[in-house]
Write a structure and sequence with these properties.
Elements (H helix, E strand, L loop, with lengths): L13 E7 L5 E13 L2 E7 L5 E2 L4 E2 L4 E7 L4 E7 L5 E9 L3 E2 L3 E14 L4 E4 L1 H6 L5 H20 L11
Parallel strand pairs: 1-10
Antiparallel strand pairs: 1-2, 2-3, 3-6, 4-5, 6-7, 7-8, 8-10, 9-10, 10-11
């Protein structure tokens, strides 16, 4: 595939996101646009293009905008989600291995745990039963997932970036 990114990304360009399961198998791929370089990762913008999906606590709809934060040294990624009209729905946080970022794609291994944060900042931990019963995660992945969940919950409670944003950029 592409070369691993070594330098700052200075221009906007399209990039493919590759979400993998704990065994390294591709679960989903989609396209986004690189919009910002951060110290230990990248921020992309993507749009929900699939059919509407009701998750119970929120609903993803065609045209929803996802500002996605991927980090190379953190055990999670964060999606800041807004309706097509710009109204924030909330943040969807995937507990995952640190991302590997290349020029043309991002790879990240999903570790099953997720956190939904509604627009008021209230977190909801998801998929704890699935995480507890899964037999494919290594001990290192389990430890990393617990670290990622702890760090995310601390960020949310302290309203640290990107959870401090009151309006979308």
């Amino acid at each position: 595939m592409g070369q691993k990114r070594r330098d700052k990304i200075l221009d906007r360009h399209m990039i493919t996101v590759v979400k993998l399961n704990a065994l390294g198998e591709v679960k989903i791929t989609y396209e986004g646009e690189v919009i910002e370089q951060v110290a230990d990762g990248v921020v992309i913008q993507a749009y929900w293009t699939l059919a509407a999906r009701d998750l119970g606590y929120t609903r993803f709809e065609p045209g929803d905008r996802f500002i996605e934060y991927y980090y190379t040294r953190r055990w999670y990624n964060i999606f800041d989600i807004a309706r097509a009209d710009g109204t924030r729905k909330g943040w969807y946080c995937n507990v995952a291995e640190p991302a590997t970022i290349y020029d043309d794609h991002i790879e990240q291994v999903d570790l099953l745990l997720d956190v939904w944060v509604d627009a008021t900042g209230k977190p909801l931990i998801l998929d704890e039963d699935e995480f507890a019963s899964d037999t494919t995660l290594s001990e290192a992945q389990r430890e990393g997932a617990q670290e990622g969940l702890h760090d995310l919950l601390a960020m949310i409670a302290a309203q640290r970036e990107p959870f401090s944003r009151t309006t979308l950029s």
